[in-house]
């Protein structure tokens, strides 16, 4: 037997390009989705107007205004300016998808999304928003600093940036599993969590109704598989190509299963994009006709210097977060804490971990209006459970942010979600941008004179109930979340 010599070193340029274009796709979805909802959420006539927040920032002394809340909206928070932020983000995302000016376009997209995240307040602070910002920050330096992503003289993919992407994937998956067991929630330890999750998750799809009817051991097995994927497979990332591909397959499987039974905006898509960094070029299908391998050149010196600085910063800020979240270290010197705090404010690093404690009931808020205080009619949200006979739907990568926040609000009290009062006020005023967030407006001719929020406990219907009546949900009343509320005499405030 004659040796053929050592195997050629793995190439990562196509992997990098898939990641960069994937980020462009996620940014496109994120900007378009939020832009469609922006007027009713944070516009001048929205539930939480961005202009009001910016006015508060202007009252802060000097540079203190921008440090806690960096945003371009600080200079102009009118609706036109906010629209230019998300539309500019769409333009940058399209440039990245097309492969033009990938690094500068990603940098501008990151700045624009970060600006919106600040003034988005309660509606733009989900974990996938921070994940997009952290991944997008890495993408700025991983992308080639060239005019065209697919040029004939490609730059070498940075090993340092690739490892930082792997580090983000590791933290995302491992701590998603770690927080589940560290919380002490018995439903994760006895493998019953998913038997609740199918119907208590924020926006279940119709497929979850059917999955919830499977034998109990199916859900227990799914919990065990989830914990193995999240807690075990991340370590395979560092053990070579084959173990890494096994981990990637597990990550992809988990994301597809999550997306198949619930709606989590662009989270699943973004996670899959991150997983592309784990797959070297030899594993990707080659385009037809077969192309020759282009010549590679080193990244320009300024980019290599920037990468070194970014790597030092990310490791210096993410390592303390990992140690703190794992309980290894409880406190750090003040300079380290300040550095980490600054990085988290800018969303360049973050902690992750979804569903640390599984919700075992499903409280739902139903908002009703009345013309006379006697007869009440319900406002129907576009996506969250409402009418019992409406089949749960997929939202796709679209992120319906009001519907999601209503799920969180129902788990707490009105004091913990004060924006609900603003929502009710706009319903009494008949504010069109806010009403556009709903599927139906029971008062198309004139606003109601009174509104209220009623709390129910929802649950998937049984097979027998569904067959007999066609309902997908059953519900039982709990009581008032917010009692009957009307506008004051001057029409500017509301009172119970």
Overview in brief:
This protein is of the alpha+beta class and 496 residues long. The protein is built from 18 helices and 9 strands. The protein is globular, with a radius of gyration of 25 Å.
Features:
496 residues, two-stranded parallel sheet, 18 helices, 2 domains, 51% helix, 5-stranded antiparallel β-sheet, 9 strands, alpha+beta
What does this structure look like?
With 496 residues, this protein is α+β, with helices and mostly antiparallel strands. The protein has 2 domains: 13-285 and 296-345, no CATH class; 363-495, no CATH class. The chain contains 18 helices and 9 strands. The protein has helices at 13-42, 50-59, 79-98, 102-120, 127-142, 159-182, 186-189, 193-200, 206-211, 216-231, 241-261, 267-275, 301-325, 334-345, 401-410, 419-429, 432-435, 463-469; strands spanning 154-155, 296-297, 363-370, 376-378, 380-381, 438-440, 450-460, 473-487, 494-495. Strand 8 and strand 9 form a beta hairpin. Helix 1 packs antiparallel against helix 3 (79-98), helix 6 packs parallel to helix 13 (301-325) and helix 11 runs antiparallel to helix 12 (267-275). The longest helix has 30 residues, at 13-42. The chain is globular, with a radius of gyration of 25 Å. The relative contact order is 0.12.
